[in-house]
């Protein structure tokens, strides 16, 4: 700044808001600022829970078996502070019992809405569970609600959802014959990647939802649902378009990993692969008379 320019310090509220908007901060998650340089008060002791089977890939540094893939694990490890396994176990245990107790989709929806074991609920506007026909032969599981989904309370209704709808329409599918849900039921703030804790806490619910819907074909869009539900250890670009089997509880169905529509929006060059996968999906549905 030269001597004739006026100082813009201190910045106005508008300057600060514009700075935040340019930096990608698109929402406030609390009424008051929090001084994170001050040590938080000690947390009350957590009552120990009986041991439950948290996938080794989630809580340890070991290579995963069936469970979360290495790509996802590495991404999660890089982004999130590692949870204490006790907290993750307690949440998973609560979700497992709640999900198992549900015998209908309506009961399961109510249980998900009542669940307090996923921290994302605190910052979300809505619980986002599913849209489409729960009797459909085709079920699609994505990652997590984004801003539009959080605002409307429905999965895949934003830009990537609209692309997904166009892709489905191209093979003769729409909400009347597809059921669409996500791994997580609350929006991660700022659309960040889901953490291990969040995936572990929500997984029993999506698995139970699949069991109650009993689809004939499952599609996993993106790396998180693919690695979590199909136990793949390779990246999504390697496993996409190849048939896997989803086997859990009463369900044993062919499952197809696909690129996430949000990725297709960022990388239009890979739409050709996505179209190939859609044709593969259409052929399988035809073959099964679904
Ligand atoms: N991306 C997802 O994975 N799910 C949504 O519902 C929206 C965007």
Brief digest:
By secondary structure, the chain is α/β, with parallel strands linked by helices.
Q: How are the secondary structure elements laid out?
A:
Blueprint: H1 13-22, H2 56-59, H3 70-79, H4 85-100, H5 105-114, E1 130-132, E2 138-142, H6 147-152, H7 159-170, E3 178-182, H8 196-213, E4 217-221, H9 223-230, H10 236-239, E5 244-248, E6 251-258, H11 261-266, H12 271-287
Parallel strand pairs: 2-3, 2-4, 4-6
Antiparallel strand pairs: 1-3, 5-6
Helix pairs in contact: 4-8
The structure holds uracil.
Uracil binds near residues 143, 145, 155, 158 and 262.
Number of strands: 6
Silhouette = globular
**The CATH class of the domain at 88-287:** Alpha Beta
Percentage of β-strand residues: 5-15%
Instruction: Round the mean pLDDT to the nearest integer and report it.
Output: 85
What hetero molecules are bound to the protein chains? uracil
Structure description:
- The structure is a single chain.
- By secondary structure, the chain is α/β, with parallel strands linked by helices.
- The chain has a domain at 88-287: Uracil-DNA glycosylase-like domain (Uracil-DNA Glycosylase, subunit E, 3-Layer(aba) Sandwich), CATH 3.40.470.10.
- The protein contains twelve helices and six strands.
- It has helices at residues 13-22, 56-59, 70-79, 85-100, 105-114, 147-152, 159-170, 196-213, 223-230, 236-239, 261-266, 271-287; strands spanning 130-132, 138-142, 178-182, 217-221, 244-248, 251-258.
- A six-stranded mixed β-sheet has the order 1-3-2-4-6-5, sandwiched between helices.
- A hairpin with a 2-residue loop joins β5 (244-248) and β6 (251-258).
- α4 (85-100) packs parallel to α8 (196-213).
- The termini are far apart.
- Uracil (URA) binds next to α7.
- Residues 142-146, 149, 155-156, 158, 160-161, 182, 222, 262 line the site of uracil.
